[in-house]
Specification:
The structure holds three protein chains of three kinds.
Chain A lengths: L18 H27 L6 H11 L2 H28 L19 H35 L1
Chain B lengths: L3 E11 L4 E11 L5 H11 L19 E4 L2 E4 L5 H4 L3 E5 L5 E4 L2 E3 L1 H9 L9 H5 L9 H11 L6 H5 L11 H12 L7 H8 L13 H5 L6 H16 L37 H12 L5
Parallel strand pairs in B: 1-5
Antiparallel strand pairs in B: 1-2, 3-4, 3-5, 6-7
Chain C lengths: L1 H26 L14 H9 L1 H29 L3 H30 L2
The chains are: A mainly alpha, B alpha+beta, C mainly alpha.
């Protein structure tokens, strides 16, 4: 079978037809990013087994703006992945699926409104998550960088 | 009324070099003119080598799907002025092998369509081939599947899907929606077979709800909904819960003195072309559930 | 079978929402006043890790997050490699990586469990 004509990895974002399509790409990218971070995090925390000095020197090595920004991105990614994940669990398993209806000309987008509600709720959860976990961190980070 | 000119940029596939080249054409546009009308105008007036596929020009046959400005579109149903652009980029449908210019190969698409067994599966095969009675169906039961039976197999959903972009084994939104259409049909008895086809990573579990398919569908089919509902059925089956109800019994038998209307057609005429008999036999084997 | 494995991603995902919220709150400035790593100092972490409840939390958390990421990455790769043999190879290769990372991740939990 040939893969000719298929968009490949570009197909994640091409063609962008709707907002869920964008959320899909972001969900993937954050998922891969979080996995990479997970491995680094496991390596970093396993330093504890080597004793107090190693742990403290690792902490000091990580205590600089670059890693702080990186960590902030990871937190943002996690919040997005979680908020969008809740939506996906509810929608993908058909737990809140509407009943099919007979399409009538001019065949508007059926059930689209319900999906848009779900996207809005995701965005709200995301906003609240960002407000609680990242906003204040971000302000303090700006202060630290300003010094 | 002043005449408006729109530039058509055709991204044409060349099978000899295996690459794409871009040609620009200036098309005068009138109110109500569709993208397909524009292509026909180019072929008639500017360049006779332009290839595209189209047939009915009224959104019934599903032949003229193309990518217009990066969005899979049924060109015969899209008016140029409604796009509000001075330039249109037209490409063959994504995620299908291009044949030439704007024509895409639907080979894999229809292979998937066949793989989901798009016909009523019955246990009483004899009755299905030589019907004596009617299958009963309520309007409510009809309502459950009619949305997914609206499909015209234009391939836009297949082209908009991110999973088909990499996974050529994935059944695709159209086939899965069609599978659900037969699964939920009150006359169908093949639901276990159908769920087994759907329950795979190249079936419903390959979908990640980007809902591009429902967004581009010109007939309001909403394949994403069908996939969600199929998932729910598979989940219920795995949890040992009740899934679909049994197929309804047939209509009561006609009294013996009344001639069944299904038998009134008489015999087919003799074959007149050489080799037609073998061809008909082959066709019958393909379409007779007793010989499948 | 392959499809059913993807069900695991939904259940582990739902669990992770709660677990990650707890995990994140530990180092958020809402809960730790001075800097990222004051709450992460050797003493602070030791105190936490001495409690059997926190050890259990980390064990569940690590297991869930590893399962979730394993299914997710495998799922993405399965879209690119579609041959049966290739998919089997990916399944085992990823399992090897993930299990070794899991054991690596268990080290601080086990090390602290003793005191």
């Amino acid at each position: 079978m040939s893969k000719k004509g298929r968009k490949g990895i570009l197909g994640w974002i091409i063609p962008i037809t709707n907002i869920e399509r964008l959320l899909y790409s972001l969900h993937r990218i954050t998922g891969i990013g979080l996995t990479l971070y997970l491995f680094i995090h496991i390596y970093e925390t396993s330093m504890r087994a080597l004793g107090r000095e190693t742990w403290i020197s690792t902490s000091e090595f990580l205590d600089n703006p670059v890693f702080h920004i990186g960590l902030l991105l990871v937190v943002l990614a996690a919040i997005f992945h979680g908020a969008n994940g809740i939506r996906l669990i509810l929608q993908e398993l058909g737990l809140i699926a509407p009943k099919p209806t007979q399409p009538v000309y001019p065949y508007r987008k059926y059930h689209r409104e319900r999906r848009v509600y779900m996207v809005t709720i995701t965005m709200l959860i995301l906003g609240i998550g960002v407000a609680i976990f990242a906003l204040r961190d971000f302000l303090i980070l700006l202060e630290v960088l300003g010094k | 009324m002043e005449e408006k000119k729109v530039i058509f940029r055709l991204r044409r596939y060349d099978p000899e070099t295996g690459g794409y080249r871009e040609d620009r054409y200036e098309v005068p546009v009138y109110r109500g003119m569709t993208v397909l009308d524009g292509l026909i105008w180019i072929k008639e007036n500017l360049d006779r080598t332009v290839s595209y596929r189209a047939s009915c020009r009224m959104g019934l046959c599903g032949s003229c799907g193309m990518t217009v400005n990066g969005r899979p579109t049924l060109t015969c149903e899209t008016q140029i002025l409604s796009l509000e652009r001075d330039e249109l980029t037209i490409e063959p449908l994504y995620n299908m092998e291009p044949v030439r210019d704007l024509v895409a190969d639907f080979h894999q698409f229809f292979k998937n369509q066949r793989a989901i067994k798009p016909y009523l599966i019955r246990r009483d095969i004899e009755e299905q081939v030589e019907p004596t009675r009617e299958y009963l169906q309520d309007p409510e039961e009809w309502n459950l599947y009619i949305q997914f039976a609206m499909c015209i197999t234009c391939g836009l959903c297949y082209s908009a899907c991110p999973t088909t972009a990499t996974n050529e084994k994935y059944l695709g939104p159209q086939a899965l929606a069609n599978l659900f259409r037969f699964y939920i049909d009150s006359r169908d008895e093949g639901w276990e077979e159908r769920l087994a086809i759907a329950d795979s990573l190249d079936g419903v579990w390959g979908c990640h709800l980007a809902t591009g398919c429902s967004e581009v569908c010109p007939k309001g089919v909403d394949p994403a909904l069908a996939i969600q509902l199929l998932r729910r059925e598979i989940l219920r089956k795995n949890l040992g819960r009740k899934t679909r109800r049994e197929a309804r019994p047939l209509a009561p038998l006609l009294p013996p003195e009344e001639e069944s209307p299904y038998r009134a057609f008489g015999e087919a005429p003799e074959f007149t072309v050489e080799g037609a008999e073998e061809a008909a036999e082959k066709f019958n084997i393909l379409h007779d559930p007793r010989k499948r | 079978m392959n499809g059913r494995i993807r069900l695991g991603i939904y259940f582990s995902g739902a669990l992770l929402v709660v677990l990650v919220l707890i995990h994140l709150s530990l180092f958020s400035y809402w809960f730790v006043e001075e800097g990222y790593y004051t709450g992460m100092s050797w003493e602070a972490v030791s105190e936490r890790m001495n409690s059997i409840l926190w050890d259990a939390f980390y064990l569940v958390f690590l297991t869930t997050v590893m399962a979730h990421s394993y299914i997710g990455i495998r799922n993405i790769l399965f879209e690119y490699i579609t041959s049966e043999g290739g998919r089997r190879l990916i399944t085992y290769a990823l399992a090897l990586i993930w299990i070794s990372a899991y054991i690596y991740g268990l080290i601080p939990i086990i090390a602290s469990a003793g005191g």
